[in-house]
Amino acid sequence: MPDNNDYYVTYGFGYARYLHNSNNIVQNLTVFVPNEDSLKINILNLKNTLPRKRTLKLVYYIKPVLGEDEIKSNGYINLEFNDNSNMIFAKNLANSDFDNICYVSSSEKITSYTGDKKFFFGKGHLGNPEGLSATELNRDLRFGENSIIAIELEIDLEAFENKEICLLLGEEKTKLECQDTAYKYMKLSYCNDELNKVKRFWKELVEKLQVYTPLESTNILLNGWAIYQTLSCRLWGKTGFYQSGGAFGYRDQLQDSIAIKYVNSNITKEQIITHSKHQFLEGDVEHWWHDETGKGIRTRFSDDLLWLPFVLSDYIRYTNDYSILDIVTNYKQGAPLEEGIDERYDKYEDSEIKGTIYEHAIKAIEHSFKFGDNGLPKIGSGDWNDGFSTVGNKGKGESVWLRILYV
User: Fold this and answer.
1) What is the mean pLDDT of residues 110-115?
2) What dihedral angle (degrees, nearest 10) is formed by the CA atoms of 360, 363, 365, 369?
3) Interatomic CA distance for residues 88 and 103, integer angstroms
4) Which residue, of 102, 218, 239, 317, is most buried by count of CB atoms within 10 Å of its CB?
């Protein structure tokens, strides 16, 4: 429950920690995602600072979407409680492209639960929902409602006792896989072991590159945080402040991978290989795509395709690995964009025709040789500055920035 006491937040590589003290209970919450499994782990440490036993009611709440946004998913989330496995399953029945099963579970026995937002909030709000005042949650998981997931746990703390609890939010292909994964992480020792593995992984990775300048804030940014953000958010999470669709961006992930070569050049190499497979026979590329569905968008953006030869040449200069040029990958195939059409979202199949990474790069460069009246490359439906996306979609606008990229 929010109050006026201080909250202390610590962000580390691979985890976040939240510390708060209220009602004579010290609350220490550590949140992380393990290296291998698909779940968010909350390790909650509660300490009773009074010389008497305390019984606490703990409620873990989420608003599942499992789709593009909350409005579109409302009424389509199917919820199911499994008492034997101590978990609630959630699936968006309207989203056939992404049909994994979400689950919520805990190391403690779930004593009651609800999927009923109206019951849980009542006339209250997120900071103080009425459901917390109820004797127990109403166990209502009706389909077709504005669904939430709230689980209630009852925690006993002896005088001055410390207790750890784990709360799990994960996703798998099947219910059985959900149960198998949750079963491992219901053990607090296993959770703490995985947390240590996460810390060790990031420490070994980000400390490979250290920069020292007279400005301490610059040192903090460059010595780990820039690399951590690039990998965890941009390349792996594929998410940003205003762009969280989980897609690969042809330009975005290639340019992000440039910095990673200093700590792990294989990641940069694999990114180049991956993106080469999303180039069309004609030389243009998918502006973005989802691996899960195989669907992507074909556009007239003028710069996307050139990031392949740009990052490739940068990678080779740094690693001296010329063998990458001989790796062979498929092209995509599909109908070219008709006159007046700026983009088309579709599932583009792999062509039987293949080319080396070198041939992919040459094809990209040759396809980009389209110049306007001033001798500058045409901007198409956009270049690196997305704000100029309608400057050249009629075939006239040119790009000064793209000319610099040629150099």
Assistant:
1) 97
2) -160
3) 5
4) 102
As a whole number of angstroms, the distance between CA 407 and CA 405 comes to: 5
Cα 175 to Cα 182: distance, rounded to the nearest angstrom: 10
Which residue type is seen at 384?
W
Question: What 3-state class would DSSP assign to 42?
Answer: strand
Residue found by looking up tokens 């956009």 in the block: 382
CB 45 within 8 A of CB 164: yes
Q: Distance from CA of residue 390 to its chain's centroid?
A: 29
Q: Are 406 and 385 in contact (CB under 8 A)?
A: no
3-class DSSP state of 331: strand
Q: Identify the pLDDT of residue 79.
A: 96
Q: Note whether 238 and 246 are within 8 A (CB).
A: yes
Residue with tokens 């900071």: 127
In angstroms, the CA 327 to CA 318 distance is: 18
**CA-based nearest residue to 35, from 15, 16, 53:** 15
- What's the one-letter identity of residue 221? L
Number of Cβ within a 10 Å radius of residue 141: 20
What angle, 0 to 180 degrees and rounded to 10, lies between the N-to-C axes of helices 250-260 and 307-319?
10
Q: Which residue has the higher pLDDT, 57 or 144?
A: 57
Give the pLDDT confidence score for residue 25 in this predicted structure: 97
Per-residue DSSP letter, 285: B
Residue with tokens 């009246």: 373
Q: What is the pTM of this model?
A: 0.89
pLDDT of residue 385: 85
Q: Name residues whose C-beta falls within 8 Å of residue 344's C-beta, 6 or more positions apart in sequence.
A: 297, 298, 334, 335, 337
User: In the prediction, which pLDDT does 405 show?
Assistant: 66
Task: Answer for the pair 90, 78: CB distance below 8 angstroms, yes or no.
Answer: yes
Whole-angstrom Cα distance, residue 229 to residue 235? 9
